[in-house]
Design brief:
Radius of gyration: 18 Å
Strand content: 15-25%
Distance between the termini: 52 Å
Helix content: 25-40%
Shape: globular
Number of domains: 1
Number of strands: 7
Oligomer: single chain
Protein backbone atom coordinates (compact mmCIF):
# COMPACT_ATOMS: atom_id res chain seq x y z
CA UNK A 1 0.00 0.00 0.00
CA UNK A 2 1.54 3.31 -1.08
CA UNK A 3 1.65 6.07 1.54
CA UNK A 4 -0.77 8.90 0.94
CA UNK A 5 -0.02 12.59 1.14
CA UNK A 6 -1.43 13.97 4.40
CA UNK A 7 -3.95 16.79 4.39
CA UNK A 8 -2.63 20.27 5.21
CA UNK A 9 -2.53 20.99 8.94
CA UNK A 10 -4.91 23.47 10.53
CA UNK A 11 -3.38 26.34 12.56
CA UNK A 12 -4.33 24.54 15.81
CA UNK A 13 -2.61 21.35 14.65
CA UNK A 14 0.52 23.24 13.55
CA UNK A 15 0.81 24.88 16.99
CA UNK A 16 0.23 21.68 19.03
CA UNK A 17 3.50 21.15 20.96
CA UNK A 18 2.96 17.39 21.32
CA UNK A 19 2.43 17.02 17.57
CA UNK A 20 5.48 19.19 16.90
CA UNK A 21 7.62 17.08 19.24
CA UNK A 22 6.70 13.85 17.42
CA UNK A 23 7.02 15.28 13.94
CA UNK A 24 10.07 17.52 14.42
CA UNK A 25 12.09 15.77 17.15
CA UNK A 26 11.41 12.16 16.13
CA UNK A 27 10.33 12.47 12.50
CA UNK A 28 7.20 10.38 13.15
CA UNK A 29 4.00 10.88 11.18
CA UNK A 30 0.88 11.95 13.06
CA UNK A 31 -2.74 11.63 11.99
CA UNK A 32 -4.42 14.86 10.93
CA UNK A 33 -7.45 16.08 12.79
CA UNK A 34 -8.55 17.64 16.03
CA UNK A 35 -8.30 16.00 19.39
CA UNK A 36 -5.47 14.00 20.93
CA UNK A 37 -2.40 13.42 18.80
CA UNK A 38 -2.28 9.96 17.22
CA UNK A 39 0.78 8.35 15.66
CA UNK A 40 0.51 6.59 12.30
CA UNK A 41 1.66 2.97 12.43
CA UNK A 42 3.07 0.90 9.59
CA UNK A 43 5.49 3.57 8.39
CA UNK A 44 8.42 3.46 10.83
CA UNK A 45 7.03 0.96 13.31
CA UNK A 46 4.11 -1.31 14.14
CA UNK A 47 2.72 -1.83 17.64
CA UNK A 48 2.05 -4.94 19.72
CA UNK A 49 -0.84 -4.37 22.15
CA UNK A 50 -1.07 -6.65 25.16
CA UNK A 51 -2.14 -6.55 28.80
CA UNK A 52 0.44 -4.62 30.83
CA UNK A 53 0.56 -7.48 33.34
CA UNK A 54 1.80 -9.79 30.55
CA UNK A 55 4.00 -7.19 28.91
CA UNK A 56 6.28 -6.74 31.89
CA UNK A 57 7.79 -10.21 31.37
CA UNK A 58 8.19 -9.57 27.64
CA UNK A 59 10.35 -6.49 28.30
CA UNK A 60 13.37 -8.70 28.97
CA UNK A 61 13.44 -9.53 25.25
CA UNK A 62 13.78 -5.89 24.26
CA UNK A 63 16.90 -3.85 23.96
CA UNK A 64 17.13 -0.92 26.39
CA UNK A 65 16.36 1.59 23.64
CA UNK A 66 13.24 -0.12 22.25
CA UNK A 67 10.29 2.22 22.93
CA UNK A 68 7.42 0.93 25.08
CA UNK A 69 4.26 2.84 26.04
CA UNK A 70 1.58 2.24 28.64
CA UNK A 71 -2.03 3.38 28.66
CA UNK A 72 -4.11 2.13 31.54
CA UNK A 73 -3.86 -1.66 31.64
CA UNK A 74 -2.49 -1.92 28.08
CA UNK A 75 1.17 -2.03 27.10
CA UNK A 76 2.23 -1.01 23.61
CA UNK A 77 5.55 -2.33 22.38
CA UNK A 78 6.94 -0.77 19.21
CA UNK A 79 8.16 -3.41 16.73
CA UNK A 80 9.52 -3.28 13.20
CA UNK A 81 7.22 -2.02 10.44
CA UNK A 82 5.55 -5.01 8.77
CA UNK A 83 5.51 -7.08 11.97
CA UNK A 84 1.73 -6.69 12.39
CA UNK A 85 1.20 -8.61 9.15
CA UNK A 86 3.47 -11.38 10.44
CA UNK A 87 1.79 -11.80 13.84
CA UNK A 88 -1.03 -14.23 12.89
CA UNK A 89 1.35 -16.60 11.08
CA UNK A 90 3.92 -16.31 13.83
CA UNK A 91 1.32 -17.16 16.50
CA UNK A 92 0.23 -20.19 14.43
CA UNK A 93 3.84 -21.31 14.03
CA UNK A 94 4.39 -20.97 17.78
CA UNK A 95 1.16 -22.97 18.30
CA UNK A 96 -0.70 -20.07 19.94
CA UNK A 97 -2.94 -19.32 16.94
CA UNK A 98 -6.18 -20.85 18.24
CA UNK A 99 -6.01 -19.46 21.76
CA UNK A 100 -7.55 -16.04 22.55
CA UNK A 101 -4.64 -14.21 24.12
CA UNK A 102 -5.44 -10.50 24.08
CA UNK A 103 -2.28 -10.00 22.00
CA UNK A 104 -2.87 -7.91 18.89
CA UNK A 105 -0.81 -5.84 16.48
CA UNK A 106 -1.48 -2.53 14.76
CA UNK A 107 0.26 -1.96 11.44
CA UNK A 108 -0.25 -0.19 8.13
CA UNK A 109 -3.17 2.23 8.23
CA UNK A 110 -3.44 2.05 12.03
CA UNK A 111 -3.05 4.63 14.72
CA UNK A 112 -1.69 4.74 18.25
CA UNK A 113 -2.46 7.38 20.88
CA UNK A 114 0.67 9.49 21.23
CA UNK A 115 2.09 9.12 24.74
CA UNK A 116 2.96 12.31 26.59
CA UNK A 117 6.55 13.22 25.64
CA UNK A 118 9.08 12.34 28.36
CA UNK A 119 9.33 14.98 31.07
CA UNK A 120 6.07 16.68 30.07
CA UNK A 121 2.94 16.73 32.19
CA UNK A 122 -0.04 15.05 30.58
CA UNK A 123 -3.68 14.60 31.32
CA UNK A 124 -4.84 11.93 33.73
CA UNK A 125 -5.25 8.59 31.96
CA UNK A 126 -3.13 9.64 28.97
CA UNK A 127 -0.65 7.20 27.46
CA UNK A 128 2.87 7.48 28.88
CA UNK A 129 6.29 6.22 27.84
CA UNK A 130 7.81 3.44 29.96
CA UNK A 131 10.81 3.49 27.62
CA UNK A 132 10.72 6.67 25.55
CA UNK A 133 12.19 7.05 22.09
CA UNK A 134 15.32 9.18 21.83
CA UNK A 135 15.07 12.39 19.79
CA UNK A 136 17.67 12.48 17.03
CA UNK A 137 18.07 8.68 16.97
CA UNK A 138 16.59 6.37 14.39
CA UNK A 139 14.06 4.09 16.07
CA UNK A 140 14.16 1.28 13.50
CA UNK A 141 17.46 -0.36 14.63
CA UNK A 142 16.10 -0.72 18.18
CA UNK A 143 12.90 -2.56 17.24
CA UNK A 144 12.29 -6.32 17.29
CA UNK A 145 11.65 -7.65 13.80
CA UNK A 146 11.72 -10.90 11.86
CA UNK A 147 14.98 -11.74 10.10
CA UNK A 148 13.09 -12.09 6.81
CA UNK A 149 12.07 -8.43 6.77
CA UNK A 150 14.10 -6.24 4.39
CA UNK A 151 17.14 -4.67 6.04
CA UNK A 152 17.06 -7.01 9.00
CA UNK A 153 19.95 -9.29 9.86
CA UNK A 154 20.30 -12.57 11.74
CA UNK A 155 18.67 -12.58 15.17
CA UNK A 156 16.00 -10.04 14.31
CA UNK A 157 18.03 -6.86 14.52
CA UNK A 158 19.02 -4.44 11.82
CA UNK A 159 22.52 -5.23 10.51
CA UNK A 160 24.00 -1.93 11.71
CA UNK A 161 22.62 -2.23 15.24
CA UNK A 162 24.20 -3.70 18.31
CA UNK A 163 22.67 -7.13 19.10
CA UNK A 164 22.12 -5.95 22.68
CA UNK A 165 19.91 -3.11 21.43
CA UNK A 166 17.28 -5.05 19.50
CA UNK A 167 15.93 -8.55 19.83
CA UNK A 168 14.07 -11.00 17.67
CA UNK A 169 10.35 -10.71 17.17
CA UNK A 170 9.95 -14.47 17.55
CA UNK A 171 11.29 -14.49 21.14
CA UNK A 172 9.26 -11.41 22.03
CA UNK A 173 5.99 -12.81 20.64
CA UNK A 174 6.54 -16.22 22.20
CA UNK A 175 7.12 -14.68 25.63
CA UNK A 176 4.22 -12.23 25.20
CA UNK A 177 1.85 -15.03 24.15
CA UNK A 178 2.92 -17.21 27.08
CA UNK A 179 2.42 -14.36 29.56
CA UNK A 180 -0.94 -13.35 28.00
CA UNK A 181 -2.10 -16.96 28.42
CA UNK A 182 -0.95 -16.99 32.07
CA UNK A 183 -2.83 -13.73 32.74
CA UNK A 184 -5.93 -15.20 31.12
CA UNK A 185 -5.69 -18.36 33.25
CA UNK A 186 -5.16 -16.35 36.46
CA UNK A 187 -8.21 -14.21 35.70
CA UNK A 188 -10.30 -17.31 35.04
CA UNK A 189 -9.22 -18.95 38.29
CA UNK A 190 -10.36 -15.86 40.23
CA UNK A 191 -13.89 -16.06 38.81
CA UNK A 192 -16.45 -17.78 41.01
CA UNK A 193 -17.69 -21.14 39.75
CA UNK A 194 -21.14 -21.07 38.23
CA UNK A 195 -23.40 -23.93 39.31
CA UNK A 196 -26.47 -24.73 37.29
Amino acid sequence: MAPTVPQPRTPAERSDPVRQWYENELGWATAPGPGPVRLLTGLRFDVLDLPAEAGRAALRHLGPKAPVALRGATMRILVGAGSADELPGLLDWLEWGRIPLGLTAVGTGGRMDAPTPPGWSGSRGAAIWLRPPEPGCEVEPTLPALPSLPGVGEGGTAPHSDPAVGSGLVRLVDTAATECHRVRLRRRSRQPLAFS
